Protein: Dihydrofolate reductase family protein
Amino acid sequence: MRKLILQMQLSVDGFAAAADGSGSWMVWSYGDNWTWDPALQDYHTALIASADEILLSRKMAEEGFIGHWEKMAGQVNNPQAVFAGHIRDAGKVVFTHTLDQSNWPNTVLAKGDLTAEVKALKKKQGKNMIVFGGVSFVSALIAAGLIDEYHLIINPAAIGRGMPVFDKVQGVLGLSLVNTTAYPSGIVVLQYRYAG
Structure:
């Protein structure tokens, strides 16, 4: 059975975005200039290459995630192009209760129960799956115990208030530490495996 991997940037105090949804506190917030350390860029690219399907919320898809990375994949002189090419080529599954058809290439809609849909996707043949966000969608996946592996990119900033992703957890979410890597920019990547 293939795994569902979460990769998400967080502040030191555990927020995925500021209260207004912004990410200006992040070392890199998906702009044209990839300000991460080269080793962190390589890790990020290798992780997306290990998956062949990306799970997205309807909101994230409609906000332009798919189109943004398709555009980046075409910028051959941009160091993000290889990473972006993996996103472009991977199958995308957009979770929605409101859309009737997909408006994006290489994308299908999942309209049923979240847990049932994800469990069915895990049984398919192929590489692992990855989810990047958004916040409410990721929170629901975590609360349902559907994330198998967590790659938390901890930025060297505390923001005080914001949007958490672990706020729907009931009881204790047991995790086993797999790896910790610190980078010169101050970012630390914490890799955990779900122990539930």
